[in-house]
Amino acid sequence: MSRLKDLQKNLFGGTTSNARQFGMIFTLVVIVLIFQIWTNGLTLRSDNLIALFQQNSYILILAIGMLMVIVAGHIDLSVGSVAAFTGILVAKAMAEWDLPWPVGILFGLAIGAVIGAWQGFWVAYIGVPAFIVTLAGMLLFRGGNQFIGNANTIPVPEGFRVIGSGFLPETGPNTGYNNLTLLLGLAGCIAVVWRELAARRTRKEMNAEPIPMWISILRMAVMVGVLVFVSLRFASGRVGTSFPVSGIILVALVLVYSFFTRNTAGGRHIYAVGGNARAAELSGVKLKRVNFFVMMNMSVLAALAGMIFVARSAASGPQDGNGWELDAIAAVFIGGAAVAGGIGTISGSIVGGLVMAVLNNGLQLEGVGTDKVQIIKGLVLLLAVAVDVYNKSQGRFSIIGSLTRSFRRDTPAAPTPSSGAEHEPAKTTVAG
Amino acid sequence: MSDVPILLEMRSITKEFPGVKALSDVNLVVRAGEIHAIVGENGAGKSTLMKVLSGVYPYGSYDGDIVYKGEVSRFSDIRASERAGIVIIHQELALIPHMSITENIFLGNEPRKNGAIDWKAANRQALELMARVGLREDPDTLIKDIGVGKQQLVEIAKAFAKNVKLLILDEPTAALNEDDSQHLLDLLRGFRERGITSIIISHKLNEIEAIADRITIIRDGHTIETLDVKGDGVDEDRIVRGMVGRELHSRFPDHTPKIGEVFFEVRDWTVRHPISAERLVAKHSNFAVRRGEIVGFAGLMGAGRTELAMSIFGRSYGLYQGGTITKDGKQIVLKSVADAIANGLAYVSEDRKAIGLNLLDDIKTSTVAAKLSKITHHGVLDAVEEYKAAEAYRQSLRIKTPTVDEGVNKLSGGNQQKVVLAKWMFTDPDLLILDEPTRGIDVGAKYEIYGIIQRLADQGKGVIVISSELPELIGLCDRIYTVSEGTITGEVARQDADPETLLKLMTSTKKMQTR
């Protein structure tokens, strides 16, 4: 019994948002398992997992930037248009000026920075609400995309496509697996163990009550288990496929930005501004600089996402990035960010994005039409945020409640599709 | 006098909030056609009493009876009291800036014809009402385009539109200049001739003395006395004695100050209001602080103490107009809060929840928030140092919490205030400006906070305490400046500080002679 209590305390302990994040991970696992059973093992098959990552990496990259925008108390509606605008400019630059593709990528990031500076200027220094600035940006850059591309599709060169559809290459001895993917998984496992030990050391230095050893081991075992399983899956796909390059970019960004938001003064200032802007200002935080940074950073990431998408679809078109802003915003909110700002984590947003992605993917595998998928996604978003709001009004987070609530959150997702499950044969493609 | 009929009687009104008895057995008798003043220190319970009367706190949420026009009244909300002819005009005017005078006068009370608003009738009636309050303006003028004095008149006209019998004015002249105040007081005298009864709440005792027929004094939620201005020979000193009248002993820890040299000096400090640029919130203010000294800023609400303090703290309020700051013999220019912190200034705001703390944070995050550089190495925050710093303050300030991982929103007011103090002590300041450091916290915690303030002074820091509680300033400070209308009007040493002297200087508008 006391062990159960220990477990509860160490898994659910801390702040409400931590507990909520755990609830989300739990939800993700449940959704994956439900679909795994329901699709007769299709969900966790190598090719599906690879496709899932490739198709959602750009949304998850957007979610990273969107998390910081939302934590600071803003919103960015322009990311889809900025992505499309960057995509067409980069594609055109490479086609017409024969820009080598690495230069093309730098060029794209520079465009993102300029657009971000433009939007950040209005938000931070003039004080126009970000909602308005980015609504204008949404129209502006969507129009810009079509103006520059003449509403045509422009293909991109082979080298450039690597960032969207490339994989880790096959090297080393023939093990039947992709060796680099295995190495990546191994690095991940080492990192997990190292982090857990570092956390234990930190607690010791703080003279805080140590986490029971068996909980640390359990936590490491679960994480390592998941990592081993996933890397084996990615490594054992069709020859020529493995862990996608876009996934590597995503993982790198998640690591860098998680570190930034958690362990640096700059990151903490974003939370301070979102939590109480005036208090932050009176504590010496440079409000305008923080607001400018989050808006600018978002556009740079949107530019990157746009390029990855263009690389994946081998061409830039006028409809690229349509509705991305909503997917990114949904991922952030499902991942536990507060609507009023000040609360949220990168990892939570990624989990939120994955919940949406798995839902999308699983339902499509089962042949559920886009109409129904949208209805379900809408309900999931509404319920996830409603639970957050309800928890806050209750003041405390109850563990049992969080579990049952996580189940309840699933209920609309699970039974609804069963009604229209076997209408058409499974198709793996997910609409961009 | 006593044969004049009684319009309103509030009998043994008691109003409790969770943990606080705001009013205890308060009695108020208002006679028809008089101007009745209610005075008391900030927090004495004047506003609560008026909220009971006007139905903001509905019948049933308080004990006691309101007898109005000879009947026991049971107002369920403000509209009910307004129907009975009781209209309250708050210090913060309830006007909509982007609507016209007419629209504001009849807001919620629009004259109708066939279901639609009859603007012709409204405008005609508005002109009549405006004439009664002596307001000469086009009724289509927007509220934002007229001055505060005229806005006040619009509020009164609005009250007349509701057929007012008993007019309650809460600090009506606080925001007005001399001329507008005079006009308003004349107007009230005119109403008295016409038989309208007024209750006026004011800190400006000279005005009260000049206009009121009778004065009820409230202190700590009790009625102290009701004075008849003409009969009892009342003057300002008499009122002040009634307002303060409290023994001051052992509410403060024993302390022998160790006062050093002047190290912080502000000269000729002048700041404009952030929005209405012609208004000066600080006018040529001069003051100085010595090492180890606790300096008080006394002043009435709206006197400009907070504005003065914040404008010095990295220009975080208003628009800098002129003046110099000298610290340790060197002139310093503080253009931002970051500059101020870097130069050893700390400002603990009066509203810890609204602007002092991020209520989403936990204790350790709050403690280090104003100086993250102290726990940053090579750009990375050191969680262990953060924890240790917070833990040290938890112990030395005796913050009651199981761990420093607890959210600050879970703490009581006194403990939250200690976290704010810890946050600013963590910045290693030389000068701490504490704005209402004990507002809304209980007596025990106050005592502890006084102790912390004294310890800070003993470390050789200068401390400025802004407080609306005179006993607090008198008990705590080594020297007190009085502030009125953005100007320092006096300087009183500890041994000369008594409420009467201070209140007189606080209500004066003459600039202190520079030494």
TrEMBL record, chain A:
CDD domains noted in UniProt: TM_PBP1_transp_AraH_like
GO cellular component, one term: plasma membrane
InterPro entries, sorted: ABC_transp_permease
Function: Part of the binding-protein-dependent transport system for D-xylose. Probably responsible for the translocation of the substrate across the membrane.
GO molecular function: transmembrane transporter activity
Transmembrane segments: 21-38, 58-91, 103-132, 176-194, 214-235, 241-260, 292-311, 331-359
Pfam families: BPD_transp_2
Subcellular location: Cell membrane
Renumbered residue ranges of the record's region Disordered: 409-432
Membrane topology: Multi-pass membrane protein
UniProt-recorded name of the protein: Xylose transport system permease protein XylH
PANTHER family referenced in this protein's UniProt entry, alphabetically: ABC TRANSPORTER PERMEASE PROTEIN YPHD-RELATED-RELATED, XYLOSE TRANSPORT SYSTEM PERMEASE PROTEIN XYLH
Keywords: Cell inner membrane, Cell membrane, Membrane, Sugar transport, Transmembrane, Transmembrane helix, Transport
From TrEMBL, chain B:
PROSITE patterns associated with the record: ABC_TRANSPORTER_1 (PS00211), ABC_TRANSPORTER_2 (PS50893)
Domain called ABC transporter: residue spans: 8-245, 266-510
UniProt topology in membrane: Peripheral membrane protein
Name of the protein this chain belongs to: Sugar ABC transporter ATP-binding protein
GO annotations of cellular component type: plasma membrane
Origin superkingdom: Bacteria
Phosphoprotein listed as a keyword: no
Organism from which the protein derives: Micromonospora musae
